Amino acid sequence: MDQFAEQKKERRKFLYGLGLLSLIPLLKLRFFNKQKEAINCVVPAPASVQKLLTEDGQLVEVDMSKVNAVKKKVTDKELQEWIKKQ
Q: Which of 4, 32, 71, 78 is the most buried (most CB within 10 A)?
């Protein structure tokens, strides 16, 4: 019976030591966890630039703040007449 009690004590010591060893990673994680810097991955919104066709047929990018705010839809007939002029 004395041997059985000693085995029980050894097992308890082993489990106690194992429990303490299992707490080390948790303590390390808790105390040494640094906040990681967040990198802003958002692509900046492009300036209001629009591609427009010039009278001589070249495609150019124009800043819309420099264009007059008058908006008028071109009819098919006007477009065809404009093309015929060229």
A: 78
Query: Does an H or E element contain 43, and which?
Result: none
**Full DSSP string of 22-35:** HHHHHHHHHHS-PP
With 0.85 as the threshold, say if the pTM is over it. Answer: no
> 39 CB contacts (<8 Å, ≥6 apart)?
none
Q: Which residues contact 54 (CB under 8 A, 6 or more apart)?
A: 60
CA separation for the pair 38, 43 (Å, rounded): 15
The one-digit pLDDT tens for each residue of the chain (86 residues) are 678 788 888 888 899 999 888 888 887 777 666 677 777 777 666 678 888 888 888 999 888 877 776 677 888 998 888 888 76
For residue 21 the two structure tokens come to: 């060893």
